[in-house]
Write a structure and sequence with these properties.
With 487 residues, the protein is an alpha+beta fold. The chain has 16 helices and 18 strands. The longest helix is centred in the first third of the chain and has 17 residues.
């Protein structure tokens, strides 16, 4: 998964119906302001009245009130996801309106607990009772007219400690958090239960499933082989996976495109994966299942997140290095970085200190183990185990050029293509830097697992968060820190 907040998670999952291209402003560009008279007229219109009714029901945190709103006004709304997001976000504040018509209103909202801004658009039927036909909220960069006052380092640590204590007490967070600067730990903490049945608490040594954060290790491994002259980023994948079933994909999709999600290779999750979840034991098994399908679009023409593309990058590592993917990462990433508590053992094997992931049951809302959703084993696209301490070691090793030289490190993390969320994607890294300020890293998430690593290169800060609850639990903590850390 990409870097995720509650707003982006809802949008990506289709919980909030997506608007069509061109119907909402680009996520990185604030919309024009309305005049006072325009805003007053918009507030009197049916679209705003419906949005306000949604907002009041959502912020109440009352399932009955949200159910009433859904049944009366928006029957396709995903109630379970809305309740989960309300718990994580702490509610939404309406910041202001940007534009409106008789059937549509657009404006800004703010997550109370993370300070993440969202740009919303709601459309309604032209006639009574003006039911909602479309509703989207996109995460956006904080508009400059709504700055957050930067804190001192000591103030950040104090605010983080208070937030984590509050969220853990409310059941909104379970996991571990680490904040460091230039390798020195400024804050670390462990919260909640690693195993609720056995009443085992999370500790800083607890191993969490990290989801798509593995993509950073995969991309770093590929760049190591590029640096060694064994792979060319411009080569088609078929040069290295010579028996790839679909020759059109094999000859057109390049290594660069695999690492940037621009190859059109599609995803691995869906009915086919579910049906064969425990039968897929090697990376080559994914090719047996998905290797015959065609590209979803002309390779290189656009960006669409592709877990399968990163699986193929892992197969390339195996074919070129002659090593099993897991052995290669262990020898060339984990060991040089000193990451002694990271790996990808099969789920059937016992792993000392591994947490149990907990996901919300769809009907009852209770926390249940995510066991029935897990693959046989993690892949090069994600799913391994790590700790916040090991993630910090990875960040330090990468920035200290223990894994790649300076030039290839810069090549690895530099944004290369615009993403659908308004950011930039590099090679297995998200590049959130703007004018030299911001972080690089990657998040990960699936039912019962959520993680995030952010590396702030100019300032030397690093944030690592891991949780055994549903996403976007971890990125919310990072987002809270992101707007408060000194530049």
């Amino acid at each position: 998964m990409r870097n995720v907040t509650v707003l982006s998670a809802l949008f990506a999952a289709g919980t909030i119906a997506q608007v069509q291209p061109g119907q909402i402003q680009p996520a990185q560009v604030p919309a024009p302001k309305m005049t006072a008279s325009q805003a007053e007229a918009a507030r009197a219109g049916a679209p705003f009245r419906q949005f306000l009714a949604f907002l009041e029901a959502y912020n109440s945190g009352d399932r009955g009130r949200l159910t009433q709103f859904r049944d009366a006004n928006y029957r396709t709304m995903n109630l379970d996801a809305q309740m989960s997001s309300r718990e994580q976000s702490g509610g939404l504040e309406l910041i202001g309106l940007d534009k409106a018509t008789d059937t549509r209103v657009q404006g800004y909202v703010l997550e109370r607990d993370t300070s993440q801004f969202g740009l919303f658009a709601m459309e309604v039927e032209p006639g009574e009772p003006h039911r909602v036909t479309r509703f989207a909220i996109l995460p956006v960069r904080r508009p400059p007219e709504y700055p957050v006052v930067k804190m001192t380092e000591a103030e950040v640590v104090s605010a983080l400690r208070a937030k984590m204590d509050k969220d853990a007490a409310a059941g909104r967070f379970a996991g571990t958090v680490l904040l460091a600067k230039n390798g020195k730990v400024l804050f670390s903490g462990a919260y909640g239960m690693a195993d609720r049945e056995k009443k085992t608490p999370n500790t800083l040594d607890t191993k969490f499933r990290i989801g798509s954060m593995n993509k950073m290790f995969t991309a770093t491994s590929v760049l190591q082989l590029v640096q060694a002259g064994k792979i060319k980023l411009t080569d088609p994948l078929g040069k290295y996976i010579t028996d790839y079933p679909n020759q059109d994909v094999a000859t057109k999709v390049t290594i660069h495109q695999l690492l940037t999600h621009t190859g059109g290779t599609g995803d691995i999750f869906g009915p086919e994966f579910t049906a064969h979840r425990l039968e897929i034991k090697t990376l080559n098994d994914y090719i047996s299942l998905f290797g015959k399908r065609a590209a979803e679009f002309e390779p290189g023409s656009r960006w669409v997140y592709s877990n399968y593309g990163m699986v193929l990058a892992g197969v390339v590592i195996e074919r070129v290095s002659g090593q099993n993917y897991y052995d290669y990462v262990d020898e060339h990433i984990y060991k040089p970085a000193g990451m002694t508590r990271s790996g990808s053992p099969p789920e059937s094997e016992s792993a000392t200190g591994r947490s149990v992931g907990y996901t919300r049951a769809k009907q009852s809302g209770a926390w249940i183990p995510n066991t029935d959703t897990l693959p046989y084993r993690a892949s090069s696209a994600g799913g391994g185990l790590s700790t916040v301490g090991d993630l910090l070691k990875f960040a330090e090793a990468l920035m200290g050029h223990k894994l790649l030289n300076a030039d290839y490190t810069d090549l690895l993390i530099a944004g290369k293509v615009n993403t659908s969320g308004g950011g930039r994607y590099a090679y297995g890294f998200e590049d959130g830097r703007k004018d030299g300020v911001g972080a690089v890293g990657h998040s990960g998430g699936a039912p019962g697992m959520s993680g995030d690593l952010r590396i702030y290169i100019p300032s030397g800060y690093a944030i690592a968060v891991l949780s055994n609850l549903d996403p976007p639990t971890a990125p919310q903590v990072s987002a809270f820190l992101d707007v408060r850390l000194p530049d």
